[in-house]
Design goal:
about 110 residues; alpha+beta; two-stranded antiparallel sheet; two-stranded antiparallel ribbon; flat
Length: about 110
Amino acid sequence: MLNPTSPLPLKDPTLFRQANCIDGKWVQADSGKTLTVADPATGEAIGEVPALGAGETRRAIEAAARAYPKWRSMLAKERAAILRKLAELMLANTDDLAIIMTAEQGKPLAE
């Protein structure tokens, strides 16, 4: 991993994850390999992500398949509450998410 915390000026550096979430757990690639994420505008490395392979992909698909029946059986009101909470978290962290996304895309923050 290039940097366990964020090299970006974030209020909450824990939002900058250099891992993949599979079955509710943050994981690295089984192979240990990573891919560098660079700001396209500057070429500067801002982080690394796991280079996942077939095994990790299979586990992610299996986890999603296990989770789906519970999600499907929830009332629309329950699913809406979960999605609203996600939206609230995104809104609460708008500035940091914008910094991360603009660094990944190489665009100015104003865009």
